[in-house]
What does this fold into?
Amino acid sequence: MRRVLRHVALGLALLPIATGLAACSSEEEAIKEVQAAIEATRLQALRFRYTQSTPEEGAFQVQGLIEDDFRYKARLLRGQTPVFDEVVNDDAIAVRFVEPELLGAFIDESQRDLADLDTDLSGVTVVDALQAKRWVLDPVGAPSLTDASRATRNQGADPVFDALGVFAYVEQAMREAFEVHEWSKDDLNPAYRASEDVFPRPDEDSGIKRYDLRRPFLPPIGATSGAASDALPATKHFRKMAIYVKDGVIIRVMERVEVTGRAGDDFVGYLKDLLEEAGVPDDTIDEIDDELEGMSEVERSNALLGGLNVGLEATGNTPVAIRTMTLELLDIGAENVEAELPTDVIEGSLAILQNRGAKTEASNASGGTGTGSTSQTERATSDEDS
Amino acid sequence: MRRTVVLGLSLVLLAACGGGNDDAPVTVTPLGGDAVPREILGLRVEVEDVEERLSTDSEPYVEAVGLYSLRDGDRLEATLQVSRFADDVDAEDEVFRQSIVDQIGSTEAKAFRMADEIVYLTASKRQNVAVFFEDRSFIVLSTLETFEHSRALLREVMELDL
It folds into this structure.
């Protein structure tokens, strides 16, 4: 597999800038229906279950509820193990670590020597309280909603933000897709061929509509004009996403960024052309082909996209975000979806945690303003750090 | 601090004048203290004088404007502007609303849901700005960036009958 990675990377490094094909939408109606469903869902209180898995990070899940955009609860799980709980209620945030051993991964290193760690319990620091699995309440430490960095951060950097911002992610994916296509079991031109369609098919009488994002065509090899962003393969070329709508609201979103089935075969052909264009000898290409033949679907997908990413990163381009994601929405519009703060808490600043708490700037560290409200700039800085 | 209040008011007038309505100016009435409670989230509410500012601006969309300062002791923490649309304005029109929102603040306003209402958040110089619509009014709440309870204040303001 290492050889495949190396050659795919080489091919990418030598690939001239090509012209991307502009996506065009022939199904305006489907886009409107999905967009309307997203807007309608955003207006409802609901419970959610968000699962994401990547080859590097493994699987995690965020379970929770959204009362509104300023009030929510979230529990992060790694595999089946709860890691931490979080409740945001307007300006306040409460956090507790169920697995304190994992606290270190959530520390904001920029605040390690700056954050005020005192609590309302004499001699007990915020870190002590979190390690003791206690709730810590920061009355003014809720994360900013409007930071630019929150919108532009990498997926996976903050799983709770990923879960809460999933509709923005879906909208971005819709913009990047060739089209939004309503699934039908008798469709002669489905978005995904049977060999690669892994998404559940709604029963006819279920009232559930499924919308698939059709991927844009891979950029042509060898062209030398056009925008650089459209000239190389990117996540959008490998993203499969199915959006499920029932009664005018979103009930589930599933995504897989991979190359499997006949799309995988097509991509192998594409890569061979690419390697040929890059001057890789025929017998080397045949060797790679043989190696890929012996792989399972998942191995082949990971080898192809992994190799592609080496090439993309080597040429300063954004790697393909290989991942699977599922969002399930429950109790949409239910009345009892409320994000109440816990009562048995220790009060202190949560600035020591990434993306939480009012950050202390180095210049203010000795000035005693650590409990001040977080500025946009300070919050942006904290998000970047994550 | 006084400048912050004036800045807040000028935002409202800019929004109201920017929609391209060529109708003759209408008289804009200042809203008095009756429009708001005397205290919100523990902050003392004071009516600010807007008459002088109103007399120099044509206001085709707004028939009444109130500007209020919210203070903790003497310290100004926030300003609240309540503008009532004129009768002939289609206050429910989304494009019209968006055109108002787009003119407020120095960053692109983002829409969020608080309870059952949509609120647009943006920022201005050292201020967090929230804009929302209520029947025939639009409300702009500007809080100093250092004020730590801006969301709780916003929620309380949104629950008022403005």
